[in-house]
Amino acid sequence: MRRGAALVAMLLALLAGEAAPAAPDHSPLPRPRPVLMPRLLPVFAPPVDAVRPRLRPAARTAARSAPVRMSGAASASLAGMRSLWPRLRPSGLVRPAAAAVRAPAAPVATSSAGAVCGDRGIIGVRLAPIEGRLAGCGIDRPVRITSVDGVMLNRPATMDCETAKALKSWVKKGVKPHVKRLGGGVAKLEVASGYACRTRNNQPGAKVSEHGRGKAVDISAITLANGATLNVQSGWGKGAEGALLTRMHKSACGPFGTVLGPESDHFHKDHFHLDTADHRSGPYCR
């Protein structure tokens, strides 16, 4: 009966002039044209601080910061891998620079100028102990001398008291008696060197010089009151001046344990080296 009803409906539709329903159109739909977004100026961009919280939600941050539990084997394996990684240098750690060579500190005076070494004929100041940069250098009780037996030094010389007393003795008994009143008498000693922490003759690998122990002083000339000089380098072996220098050189052998001059070697061609070293065989003088 349902089929018959459908046929009756169709006939009624044809009689009424109605067209049959159109077949469905399966052709593809046209693609929509892309819509171009306008470029936003930087002034309308939201601040970075406002966006940053959205990029890192609190839940994710908390999840990342939570410790991860591992099995014993996995933890041991990870520890072994970390031991191979280089350790980071702490930010506050600064690599020390190469040690610089420091100049020796100037000796510090511990007294005012006046008589030293218990001798009124030795004028100078007492100094604090001196430590040398080389093994064997230094002076326990140094003095800086400015004059001996009334004769000025052209520059202060640092030494120990034993050497200062030997220098005074030589000036009093070996220099003045030979010069006498020549040129008005002895006025000044020209000091080439006093205390100096170095090896003998500045030779590499040599023993420490007596200068490094404060037991030596080098004299290059004797200046007279009238300004004339008895110069070791230019006057040695020449006439009356050479004769005076030879006698003064010889007179130093006794107060000093070592006396070297122009005839000893080329290192002493321009001065007398005088030191208070103690030699078993007695004074060494050349």
CATH architecture of the domain at 150-285: 2-Layer Sandwich
Count of DSSP strands: 12
Count of individual helical segments = 7
Shape call: rod-shaped
Folded structure, characterized:
With 286 residues, the protein is of the alpha+beta class. The protein has a domain at 150-285: Muramoyl-pentapeptide Carboxypeptidase, domain 2 (2-Layer Sandwich). The chain is built from seven helices and twelve strands. It has helices at residues 2-15, 48-55, 58-65, 72-84, 161-179, 232-235, 239-251, and strands spanning 114-116, 119-126, 130-131, 138-139, 143-148, 151-159, 186-193, 216-224, 229-231, 258-260, 272-275, 284-285. Strands 1, 2, 5, 6, 7, 8, 9, 10, 11 and 12 form a ten-stranded mixed β-sheet that branches. Strands 3-4 form a two-stranded antiparallel sheet. The longest helix has 19 residues, at 161-179. The termini are far apart. It comes from Actibacterium naphthalenivorans. This is Extensin-like C-terminal domain-containing protein. Keywords: Signal. Residues 1-22 form the signal peptide. Residues 133-286 form the Extensin-like C-terminal domain.
